[in-house]
Amino acid sequence: MGRVVVILTTAAAVVACSVATVMVRRRVKRRRKWRKVVGLLKELEESFETPLGRLRQMVDAIAVEMQAGLVSEGGSKLKMLLTFVDDLPNGSERGTYYALHLGGSYFRIIRVHLGGQRSSLEVQDIERHSIPTSLLNSTSEVLFDFLASSLQRFIEKEGHESISSQDVKRELAFTFSFPVKQTSLSSGVLIKWTKGFAISEMAGEDIAECLQGAVDRRGLDIHVAALVNDTVGALSYGHYHDPDTIAAVVFGTGSNACYLERTDAIIKCQNPRTTSGSMVVNMEWGNFWSSRLPRTSYDIELDAESLNSNDMGFEKMIGGMYLGDIVRRVILRMSQESDIFGPISSILSTPFVLRTNSVSAMHEDDTPELHEVATILKHLGVSKVPLKVRKLVVKICDVVTRRAARLAAAGISGILKKLGRDGSVGEGRRRSSDKQMMRRTVVAVEGGLYSNYRMFREYMDEALRDILGEDVARQVVIKAMEDGSSIGSALLLASSHSVRTISNI
Ligand code: ADP
Ligand code: MG
């Protein structure tokens, strides 16, 4: 009996020892895996770092590239396109105008009525629709017929007091969010598609003519009277409400900026024919490139697999179309190099499956258990990960978005530097009292990324204060505007009409 007890006790001890050993081994393995993940995260943070010194170098590089792009055609990756917009709306415009805005993800149609003073601007109707993905690689006919049919439905809704019953042709501004070489305010040819559009054989086509053709084929009483880049629309809207507005930036599916430049600084344009002495320049800053940009292996892979590789390098670091995909690539790499996300999910390997609105939802998830993160990961085929892994995902979103927002702030500061409004002119000699004399400068900002992603806005504001210093930053007002580019394009068309009417008298 005594022997049996001894044997059983020994056996139990052996089992307990083996279980303990297995558990310890597992724990050691888990710790080692986690250490690996911590190492990967550290690498990620380092490669995405944007220290102030680097941002300042970028500011200088942007100002230099802007200058180079103004001197000669092709002088810089910044195209610095002429817009033929010299007078911005001021509030005195009158009439009813339309705008059709083709963005990267949405198209909008609006009708505005202007009563001759700022307070009388009335947006009478506005529609906003997603662009069907089938259009992105369709044909020119399909795209423009789709836009014309949407316009037709829009105007068919109008009541009896509609403009057509007054026997006046509808005047429409076409707000277009892709690079165009303008030949006048009302015409211009497509340089290239961006943001996932790939409609063949359209480069070199007159965009306004394409829309006018589709509108005419449907017998619509619409005159496509202006072709306006979305940033220029946003600047017009900003200026209409606040004459200190001198630049506009869009942070939506893609990113771009425009600003008001002195015509004598636009050296590549021999005969600018403006009365105001200035012209709005569309920078097409999505294509900005500098060796100072913190380019990582994720950016290189994303670019290589994109439809427009070696192009739009800046946009691919800050545009809403891309941030989600950068985050996805980081999570995928981590799940390949450690198994903290469980078995590798095939969904996670699908490009663009993680969208930037999900990134902001995860980043701003304030539930203690990070429920939103869990739900979004589940949709990506990653389920039942512990809280510390969910926290890791939030950190990844933070790293990617913080870099984007800081680069965006460097971009804005680059424009201010070019205009001598960044407070750096004669910095050595400038006394703090002079800094307080800095002119108030308003930058109009619009786009879904900016307006819907609080952390992006906060990081951008913080970086602007870092770069410019508190005194100068206080004079720089970032003004967010919803639908500014569509409304602003209609305002611009109205103001070009009033100029024409006055000069005809
Ligand atoms: P478009 O680029 O067509 O003019 P928007 O300016 O509305 O349209 O921008 C849409 C883009 O904004 C989306 O593709 C997405 O990248 C980004 N976005 C929209 N909502 C959010 C959000 N909640 N959080 C982060 N980004 C968002
Ligand atoms: Mg837009």
TrEMBL record:
Matches recorded under Gene3D superfamilies: 3.30.420.40, 3.40.367.20
Superkingdom assignment: Eukaryota
All residue ranges annotated as the Hexokinase N-terminal domain in the record: 41-240
Transmembrane regions: none
Membrane topology, as annotated: Single-pass membrane protein
GO-annotated biological processes: glycolytic process; hexose metabolic process; intracellular glucose homeostasis
Enzyme Commission identifier(s): 2.7.1.-
Cellular component terms (Gene Ontology): cytosol; mitochondrial outer membrane; mitochondrion
Protein known as: Phosphotransferase
